[in-house]
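Data availability (excerpt). The following record was deposited with the supplementary files.
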Amino acid sequence: MNHFWEQAKKVIKNRKPIKEEVDKLPKLPVIPEEKEFKEITYDFKNVGGHVEVFANGEFQYSADTMKEAHEMLLSKDL
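Predicted structure:
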């Protein structure tokens, strides 16, 4: 018999089930799905001595001054 086929028979006879081999492989990190970003338009309205902030027409918060409104918008403390 051909040497190649003898080696092939040994490999086939001694191989482990594929699931066992797959389970031993290192786990790959899960890549999060890409998030779709929506454009947001901010409006600042001076109302009765304070500033109201709207995102896409929806009220978000109010501030005493325009400076404070911008600072709050840039912070993550909303």
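Summary of structural features: The chain has three helices and three strands.
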